[in-house]
DNA sequence: AGGGTCTCTGTAACCGCTTACGGTGAAACG
DNA sequence: CGTTTCACCGTAAGCGGTTACAGAGACCCT
């Protein structure tokens, strides 16, 4: 690989000039600039990233924190691939790469662990990262918040953080849920239950409040026994529906905070001999791939999955170049009507 | 962030000694070593990765090439998340990070594009990457092969490459397919068709040969009109079944080279008024999430998804530290019998 | 003609770490 | 007691860039 020095020698200039050609082109004479550029192209010159980062204290990498929740092993992100597609392509447009940080460092290494909050800061500094994108796995909220305070650019997904150069992106969870439940109400249901995610989870809480808002809008009395907590997993959806069906006055419709739980609910309903949507209408959230394939196809609230990544990339790039805090981004969440809610029969 | 020099000053030693404490501990006196270690821990010292990489020409990063096929936009990996989980956790154990390379560089940049084969080499050098993990998207086979020849450690997924420090990992596609088709034969089917992936795609070709081998084993005459090419997408599975059903002597069972196509096949069968598995038995490949959720649940050949990542990580680490070529890894592919093949009724 | 500006470029320090090399003092040796 | 040997450590030269600073001409002005 050609180095700057080789270019310099071949062009009869100093390395400083070569560097200037790429970083402050306007300060170098047009003739020499072209000469340098031509030789650089011939030798296929690429500035060494480590050297550049060392001297500028800035790399072209954004860190990605994506841990699987240690309290819930097997946790999976509902649409990681789409998110990454959006993130990567938007970052690529700025010439940035995505560094997926190792979760637990080599024991030989000097405290390379990411476990503690300062781990994030250390990683960011060690690699001169432009900033961090934080994917919520449900158990790092405190660490995220503390990193956000550190002043490094950072954008969290689906969890609110605050800091001098921090922001977050999330869906309009409350709005989406509200629309979903309103849809159910519009279909004539009034006994509508909901299965929430883990209490404390921000998207889940927002969806719950959207559910409540929709009932309030319609003047339907909320019932505590119609709100049952799940954990976003399929099994919890099944369990929730079993509990709901055991009530004296079981619901005729269920809004689940995730498609996985909606699928679990579907299985439970089927096992109980109920037909969906005739005996029990069902709406989910996320619009994961499964939603459209299950039978009946799931009515659900779709999130802008690649949009998450794109928004995160934009926000972090803005904070890197701008220097200030960015406004949180809330992406639209749209109801996708399929078969599980019963609208198509009506 | 504390630097080596600060540690050195506080300990009254030179920076060289500090460095040695971490890189060749046995060459430094125990007392001073402990002193340095203690101070380092107090100051929470972490060697700067850029500086280290610059001087050793070795970073602790592995590059990940994961492009979406430009000829088939919207291409998605069937189980990227599981693969990444395995890859990341295995690399983390060695203290390595995963760098997702930007696909198309900033235009301002000096030829930062990854498009051409040398793009890979350049990226690897610029960042002092330990090597590359290549995810096949169906259209980079030549670029992969050429990178493999470059001598940098590299492991490709689902596509064979060869080079001084290159290897690949793949599933036992042929064996898995053979088992699947043998299962169908065992259920009494003899008119078994197959839907392949894109011709030329290695896993697809291997699955096709497994299909043929199973027929041969059973003494069943292969029929050219029972082999129809798809592209791994759902729609192609639908189209394929429509063609198959139009034959004079339609098959009674279909082996699809991907679950997506199997789902498409399922939809086509249903649309044609056929019941699966009674009228048409179906087996897929991959065991993606959808497989277990679709109705009837898909019998399919399961790949060891996280195992892919783990094997890739192991192979590349071995090549980095070892220096030689590693044997290709072929992961077991196991038939998972569910409902779409009819075995459960029998 | 002397001085001030402006443009362009080279010199050299620096980023933080690694490592070849050489030096020092103590222990071991003849 | 002189000489080797060895363990330990410091000096300094990189790695490949960036950038503050200063110097050299060219040009314009009074």
From TrEMBL, chains A, B:
<dbReference type="InterPro" id="IPR028082">
    <property type="entry name" value="Peripla_BP_I"/>
</dbReference>
<dbReference type="Pfam" id="PF13377">
    <property type="entry name" value="Peripla_BP_3"/>
</dbReference>
<feature type="domain" description="HTH lacI-type">
    <location>
        <begin position="2"/>
        <end position="56"/>
    </location>
</feature>
<dbReference type="GO" id="GO:0003677">
    <property type="term" value="F:DNA binding"/>
</dbReference>
<keyword id="KW-0805">Transcription regulation</keyword>
<dbReference type="InterPro" id="IPR000843">
    <property type="entry name" value="HTH_LacI"/>
</dbReference>
<keyword id="KW-0804">Transcription</keyword>
<protein>
    <submittedName>
        <fullName>LacI family DNA-binding transcriptional regulator</fullName>
    </submittedName>
</protein>
<keyword id="KW-0238">DNA-binding</keyword>
<dbReference type="InterPro" id="IPR046335">
    <property type="entry name" value="LacI/GalR-like_sensor"/>
</dbReference>
<dbReference type="Pfam" id="PF00356">
    <property type="entry name" value="LacI"/>
</dbReference>
<dbReference type="InterPro" id="IPR010982">
    <property type="entry name" value="Lambda_DNA-bd_dom_sf"/>
</dbReference>
<keyword id="KW-0678">Repressor</keyword>
